[in-house]
Each structure stands twice: as C-alpha cells, then as structure tokens.
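User: Could you check the structure of this?
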Amino acid sequence: MSVKTLIRRAVPAAVTIASAGMILPAVASAHARISPPVSVSGKLQLYSLAVPTEKSGLTTSKIVMTVPAGFGIDSFVPPPPGWRMQVQQTGSGDSAVITTATWTGGSTPTGEDSLFQFLAQPASAKTYTFQVQQTYSDGSIVNWAGSESSQAPAPTIDVKSSLGGGGVSVVTIIALILGLLGLLAGGFALVGGGSRQRALA
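Assistant: Sure, the predicted structure tokens are below.
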C-alpha cells in the first residue's frame, strides 16, 4: 500500500479523532499524555499536554512539567482562563533552555483534562520522556513519572528522523496529521494572544 493511499485513508480518521478530542472530557486511558505521540526531529511543532483529573470530588490546581534534555521549547500558547504559567530555564536570550513549566491557579474538575500547549523542536530522533507532577485541591500529589506499565506512567514522545525508509504506519501518519492540525489551531491562538509568550521564572 502506498504512502499516498495511507494518507488518504488516515485523514478522515485523524479529523474524527481531533474532533472528538475537542468535545469529550478525559479519555478512557486516563493517563497524563503529550501529543502528538510521534513527531519529526528538527521540526518546530505544536504539542499538547493533557492531565486528567481522576479523583472524585476534587479539582486539579497545579501542574509541573519537567522537560527532557534536547526537547527545545520555543514558546507557549496562553493557558486556559484561570491558569497562570511560570518557567524555569538555564541560560538566557537565544541560548535559553526551558527545564520546567509550572501552571497554577486553575480548577479542573473530575473527569476533565487540564490542557496546555507549546511550540517545541526536538533535537534528535529518540524517545523523550517527560515527568509531570499533578497537585489536587486537597494537597495530594500524583507523579506521572513511572514506567509504561505503572499506574502513573510518564508521558513519552517517539521522535523520528524522517518518514522515509521502511514504510510508514497509519498510526504515525495520523499522529503527524494531528500535529499539523494542532499547529494550525495553535497558530490562531498565538495570533489571538497578540504574540508568542515566554513566561520567565
């Protein structure tokens, strides 16, 4: 099956998935996740962090994301109403490297996701593993930093050097299409916010 055929079949599925993500609350997997799960190294792309509020009768009030080395965040989409953002970084100016991003002040209820977006460029082809700390309104903390089989797995992204070579899976194509759709949506959000925002610690 040709790549062109795969893309033609994948587009409707990607649109369906994207539409569902805009409407539904937290998905059944109920894990912290960063999407798209597959992307290309050296390319600036919009990524989304989604963290589910799972505890009944509580809200999510704080999210801290630790950025893996080599995953260069360029800028952030303004957070949802009620949320504030701060970052920690090393260096300054063009050599600044964001190491953590912290969102506070929100109140995400049970069954919904806290959703934050940012433009980033992974430096090389490999699996990037993030650590996410979630604080609930009662002060309890969930650390999304475990293995894939744990109850609180760390979000990961599989970065490829290109789409060439030994074939392209439908999952990969859908992930990249979703990333493109997200980039377009994020572009509108950035324009609506005036200019790219980089909150400094």
